[in-house]
Amino acid sequence: MTTAAQHSSSEDEPVLTILMPVRNEAAFLKSCLASIEPPSGLLCEIVLVDDGSEDESAAIAADFAAGSAIPMQVIRNGHRGKAGALNLAFLAARGDAFIFFAGDDLLVGSALPARLAAVTAGMTARSPCVAQCRYRSFSDTHPGLAGILFPRPGMEDHIAGGAVSFNRAFAGRYFPIPEQLPNEDSWLRALAIALDLQVVPLDCLGLHYRIHAGNSVGPLRSFAEADRNLRERNAAYALALERFDREITASGRRRLEAIIRAEELRSRGRWLALLFIGGLSRIDRAMMLANSTPWLYALKTRLLPKLRHWIRRRV
Hints:
By secondary structure, this protein is α/β, with parallel strands linked by helices. It has eleven helices and nine strands. The protein has two domains: 15-210, Spore Coat Polysaccharide Biosynthesis Protein SpsA, Chain A (Alpha-Beta Complex); 223-314, no CATH class. Helix content is 41%, strand content 17%. Strand 1, helix 1 and strand 2 (43-51) form a beta-alpha-beta unit. Helix 1 (26-34) runs parallel beside helix 2, helix 6 runs parallel beside helix 7 (223-243) and helix 7 runs antiparallel to helix 8 (250-267). The mean pLDDT is 91.
């Protein structure tokens, strides 16, 4: 369990900490920080960790912090990766609840009270709790990928780091994130599965997700890139099984073991065997299949425009 900075807030006024890992985001960081506009009366702080940026990201963050009405820490760090930056940010945080915010996205400030209340109100604050709001894609360079509302129907179980909020009780289990993982998303989902946590769905738009060439995942990646990224991300499930072995629920163990087995098959290109593996959800099976071979990945990529059109008609 990670020991974080001493936090202090009154019982009636919980504090929200915005955890920001940043690396080479100078092109977007000014607009990103400017979008942090919490409603009057909401107590929040920003902890930004610059993960060894080679551009002006750290200077932009420092300038913003100097004039910000929101308490803000800017921590400069050697390049440890996103997970390492988030671990460091949490150690400096004083909040009762937390959200992740990337340096290339835009925050919807009006949704912050709902995101905070969902994980701190009443009895919720005493046990691990995670909530997920909705988010919408936008792009200055790829308009065909813009305007999609997430989570997609049927995929609410797939947690996006920038859309979640969680309380300190959950954070005590979640941190430290294993630093061999490339990001926070898969570790969030692995822990929720391991502990049988029900993620609270919030029907509010809390984030605008920017799609650009620098995204670590998404439809702009080649199969080789997507395959490598999935191998790294999906390692989270085996790591969760190991870390929480003594407290994992029986159903959580079954689900994690099924996902681990499916990833073994996916990474070896054994798409046919994926059709018959037990204990796997319909969505997990479809995602593993679509990313198991170059030709299935290409088929998925061709079908995406039609799928996006169908999604827009439904939401």
